[in-house]
Each structure stands twice: as structure tokens, then as C-alpha cells.
Specification:
The complex is a heterodimer of chains A (348) and B (111).
Chain A lengths: L14 H10 L7 H6 L13 E5 L25 H10 L7 E5 L9 H10 L3 E5 L4 H4 L6 H7 L3 E5 L5 H8 L3 H14 L11 E5 L10 H16 L6 E3 L6 H9 L3 H10 L14 E4 L5 E2 L2 H5 L17 H5 L10 H4 L13
Parallel strand pairs in A: 1-2, 1-7, 2-3, 3-4, 4-5, 5-6
Antiparallel strand pairs in A: 7-8
Chain B lengths: L21 H14 L7 H14 L3 H13 L4 H33 L2
The chains are: A alpha/beta (348), B mainly alpha (111).
Chain lengths: 348, 111
């Protein structure tokens, strides 16, 4: 099994080292903050916190080559039940409509099912970022589709291609076949098959050093191919750009694609994506309860800017709503082309 | 100056041809952009055709551009190589079919 950068004590497991590489190209590259300033954004502020995204642990049964979390079976960071209770207090705020659970594989947190049940009691919409293969990883996870259905959870799952070769090249040998089986299990309980409220969305992200093609064209092709070859149906496809951080940054550097990729992101800058970037309506919470503008800033250890509270124990939505979002060069990843967010493209 | 005719960085300067003749360059790039939009064929299908043609005309810039574009749009390595074989078959066939002309001439003059 491939080890995480953290366990390998790799240079890039340190957030400062990643930031130093990303900022090193300045001034050859235009700083992101200067780029958006040219379009009238002297700072970027939230439009309001509607999505509460929680990373409940970095442990995962997969070791994907592009993973910005550097997740894997050797990661031991798991959210405790005490921190989950702090989340439950914070999300009682009525502006928060959606709780987005991510990881690692969030299902590997021993308190995952309890947490989902408690969130649902508060009437929040729940998204689980399920890697699909977890459903088949152990018998005790085989009933996850039924559990998701019981709590009307929206399932969002990565599948970088409708072919085995490309999927396995990014996510590991055998992942495609297991993902197909898991999708069929989700379809079997009613996910992604009708207008029954059981939403199954797939995520495309490029298996290589390039940007996603048209989200609409991909969705049409995925729907055709997955149904023709495997009888699988789903709701929507989100096309997400890979962020030049963590393991994907390592891939870019080792393959000699880093500079070209950054140039590509910058050349594809789309000002119409700025308004809809996810950091404007999302707050990201780490396994140990710290607060970040997005999942990517979390992995770069860029906590929300003072005077906004940096930890759940001091959660204050008013202060968070007036904060300035922390911007660095990786932010170009969310404004390239049609833009990118956890919900896919953000601009035409 | 590097001692070779092709420089990969020149692909990024393609638009500069307008410096010497802007109206014609504008017409060409407008046309080019229209050609590659979704139509009776999809953008993805057009990309694979462009890849095959790029090989047939042996344009290194086009091969670079459409190898990346076709792969990014989701074609597999096998599909892309089959497209190159289609280009090779047509080019090879184009040579060989002239063999009939050669035969005609030889038959005309041979005893």
C-alpha cells in the first residue's frame, strides 16, 4: 500500500513548504489577490455561511494520487465525539442549511452514524462525500446505502472516468470495479434513479496535469456510458479542478508539470467565477475543530483570519461573516475556466 | 537563437500572426473557433479528427495541442493511437493507390 506524505515524512507534508513553492513563482505570476483586485475585489468576503463542511478524519481506505488531504489508511487523525458535539451546537444557526461530511473516508470515523443521525435531527441537509469503495471494504459497511437512504443523505462520489484504466491510474488498482459495484448498490436502494429525493452525484476530476473539460458534455457522456455498460444512473456530475497542493502538487513537481499547470490555471482565470467560489458560502472545519475558509486552506493550515474565531469552541457566525478570506496562489484553481467548487463548475 | 525550426513555445504565439495581417488573421481565428464548436459533431469528436489530421499533415504544434486536447476530453490512449492509424492508413493508401497510375503508365509503354 502506498504511504501518505505525512508518514513518509515528505517535504510536502509540511504546509509551509507547500506555500513556499506556491508563492515562489511571484512576481513572475500575478498574485491572486492582485488579479481579483483588477476586477474590483480588494478583498473577498463571505456571502453568508450556508454550508458547514466538516472533515471528520483523514483516514481512508484508498490512497489516491491527487488527494489534497493526503488521506490514507495510515492517517490517524479522527474527529472525536466532543468535537462533533461542538459542531452540533454551531450548526444550529438557521443560516446553515447544509452539512457536508468529508474526510478521508468519513464513514471510517467510529461515530459517523451517530453524527449523521444527530445532524438530521436538526433538520439539516446532509452531504456525505463517499468514496464508493468503502461500501465494499468491509461487511460492516455493506448497509451504508440503506443508512444513507434512511437519513435522506445526498451522496457525492468521485469517479474520474467511466473507464477502469483512467480511474485506477488515479485512485488505485481495482477501484473502478468496486466503485461500479457500489454505484449499483446505491441504485438498488433508489439512489440516482428517480425523482425520489435520493440524490447521487458524481465528481469528475482530471487524472493528469490538465483542467476539466465541459461539465455538461462530460455529464452527458458519463450518463450514456455508465448506463450502457453497467446499467448505472445518477443525478448530476460535478467537474472539479485539481488543486496544486499536497499529493497533487507532488505529482506536478515530480512529473515536471508544475509550472505549466500553474500557467494554465492563471491563463484560464475567469472573473465571472469569483462571485460563486465556495469559500463565500462555506466554512470548513478540521478533525480537531479549527475553522478554515475552505478544505484547501485547511490542508495548507491557513486558518480563518482574525478577528474571526479560529476554533469551534469560539464559533461566532457574525464575526465569520465579516472576515476577509485568506487568498493564496492555489486559489487560481477555483477560478480557472468554468470555475470549480465542491459542487463543480461555478460559471458558464 | 536555438538551432532548430520548431519551438514548442511558438504554439502560444500563434495569435501573433495578426501582427502582420490582422484582418485575415481575425477571419481565420473566428472561423477556427466556430469550426470546433459543438455542431452535428461534438467538440470531443472534432478533437479526435484534429488529432488524426495533425499527424497526417505532420504539424508538431497541432500534434502537441490535440494530443493534450483529445486526452483531456476523455479519449483513451488506445483510441488516440487508432486515430493515428486511420491517418496512417489514409496516407499509406494515398501513396499506394497511385501505384495504379504507375501500372497504367508501364502498361502503356511496355511491350
Amino acid at each position: 500500500m502506498i504511504k501518505s506524505l505525512k508518514v513518509l515524512n515528505h517535504n510536502l507534508s509540511n504546509a509551509d513548504n507547500q506555500l513556499s513553492i506556491l508563492e515562489n513563482e511571484l512576481p513572475r505570476q500575478t498574485a491572486f489577490r492582485n488579479k481579483i483586485a483588477a476586477f474590483g475585489y480588494t478583498a473577498l468576503q463571505p456571502s453568508g455561511i450556508e454550508v458547514f463542511q466538516i472533515n471528520i478524519g483523514k483516514m481512508c481506505n484508498q490512497v489516491c494520487k491527487h488527494c489534497h488531504v493526503d488521506a490514507g489508511p495510515d492517517r490517524k487523525e479522527i474527529m472525536t465525539i466532543e468535537t462533533m458535539q461542538l459542531c452540533l451546537v454551531a450548526i444550529q444557526n438557521p443560516t446553515i442549511k447544509t452539512v457536508d461530511l468529508t474526510g478521508g473516508a468519513p464513514e471510517l470515523n467510529p461515530n459517523f452514524r451517530w453524527f449523521v443521525t444527530e445532524i438530521k435531527k436538526l433538520g439539516k441537509h446532509i452531504i456525505v462525500r463517499c468514496n464508493l469503495t468503502i461500501i465494499l471494504a468491509n461487511k460492516k459497511f455493506n448497509d451504508l446505502p440503506d443508512f444513507f437512504k434512511l437519513h435522506q443523505v445526498e451522496v457525492v462520489s468521485s469517479l474520474p472516468s467511466f473507464t477502469a484504466q483512467r480511474t485506477d491510474s488515479q485512485r488505485g488498482d481495482g477501484v473502478f470495479n468496486d466503485s461500479i459495484k457500489a454505484l449499483q448498490m446505491l441504485n438498488a436502494v433508489g439512489y440516482g434513479v428517480a425523482n425520489n429525493g435520493l440524490i447521487l452525484n458524481l465528481v469528475y476530476n482530471p487524472a493528469g496535469a490538465f483542467l476539466p473539460p465541459s461539465q455538461a458534455a462530460l455529464e452527458t457522456e458519463y450518463k450514456t456510458e455508465l448506463f450502457k455498460n453497467f446499467g448505472i444512473t445518477f443525478n448530476s456530475l460535478f467537474a472539479i479542478t485539481n488543486m496544486p497542493i499536497s499529493r497533487y502538487l507532488d505529482y506536478l513537481l515530480v512529473s515536471g508539470n508544475y509550472q505549466k499547470y500553474m500557467d494554465k490555471l492563471i491563463a484560464a482565470f475567469n472573473p465571472s467565477a469569483i462571485n460563486n467560489v465556495m469559500c463565500r458560502n462555506t466554512i470548513s472545519v478540521s478533525w480537531d475543530g479549527f475553522l478554515y475558509d475552505c478544505d484547501f486552506n485547511q490542508m495548507l493550515d491557513l486558518k480563518v483570519k482574525y478577528p474571526a474565531p479560529q476554533h469551534l469552541s469560539e464559533f461566532n457566525i457574525q464575526l465569520l461573516n465579516t472576515r476577509n478570506i485568506v487568498l493564496k496562489q492555489h486559489c487560481y484553481g477555483c477560478t480557472a475556466g468554468a470555475g470549480s467548487s465542491c459542487g463543480g463548475a461555478v460559471a458558464i | 537563437m536555438a538551432n532548430h525550426y520548431y519551438n514548442s513555445e511558438d504554439l502560444g504565439k500563434f495569435g501573433n500572426i495578426g501582427e502582420y495581417q490582422k484582418p485575415l488573421a481575425d477571419k481565420f481565428f473566428d472561423y477556427y473557433g466556430e469550426v470546433f464548436k459543438n455542431g452535428a459533431l461534438t467538440e470531443k469528436e472534432k478533437s479526435l479528427i484534429a488529432l488524426a489530421v495533425a499527424h497526417a499533415v505532420q504539424c508538431p504544434y497541432c500534434i502537441d495541442a490535440y494530443s493534450a486536447d483529445a486526452y483531456e476530453k476523455g479519449y483513451s490512449q488506445q483510441q488516440m493511437m487508432e486515430a493515428v492509424h486511420v491517418a496512417a492508413a489514409i496516407k499509406g493508401g494515398a501513396v499506394l493507390v497511385h501505384g495504379v497510375q504507375m501500372m497504367n503508365k508501364v502498361k502503356e509503354i511496355a511491350m
